[in-house]
Amino acid sequence: HVALAELGMDSLQSVRVRGWFLRHLGVEASVLSIMSSGYSLSRLCEDVLVSWRK
């Protein structure tokens, strides 16, 4: 699992990803988490899925 930041994810893209999850699923995704080292796409999806089920 490669960190999103290592794949080139920057802060603007993180804000856009957060907005997408908020608009389409009603789920908050933390920009700080998305930007943190070691935070992969699979981890993001797991976290969003857990929040979405609540």
UniProtKB/TrEMBL annotation:
Keywords noted in UniProt: Phosphopantetheine, Phosphoprotein
Residues in Carrier domain copies: 4-45
One Pfam match: PP-binding
InterPro entries, A to Z: ACP-like_sf (IPR036736), PP-bd_ACP (IPR009081), Ppantetheine_attach_site (IPR006162)
Keyword Secreted (UniProt): no
Full protein name: Carrier domain-containing protein
Biological classification of the source: Eukaryota, Fungi, Dikarya, Ascomycota, Pezizomycotina
